[in-house]
Amino acid sequence: xxxxxxxxxxxxxxxxxxxxxxxxxxxxxxxxxxxxxxxxxxxxxxxxxxxxxxxxxxxxxxxxxxxxxxxxxxxxxxxxxxxxxxxxxxxxxxxxxxx
Length: 99
What we know:
It is built from 4 helices and no strands. It is mainly alpha-helical. The protein has one domain. The longest helix has 26 residues, at 32-57. The chain is elongated and about 55 Å long.
């Protein structure tokens, strides 16, 4: 598998994990601004961690192609983060909202 493919899939998995963490951390008691801030903070932290791991994975890539490491897989990261955050939040807080 190519280095960029591994970075792409690693970033997609990081988006899934970040979405699960964000969905579990956000609580009903928070107002909307706080919840959005927490979700963005978690996303940024996980993205920078995936960026660091991606740079280590692409050590032997030529310098002109190294820029691609920063942006490769960002779209799946964002969409998987949002999808799993919504699913986890709904699954955890569904019984709280019904009462």
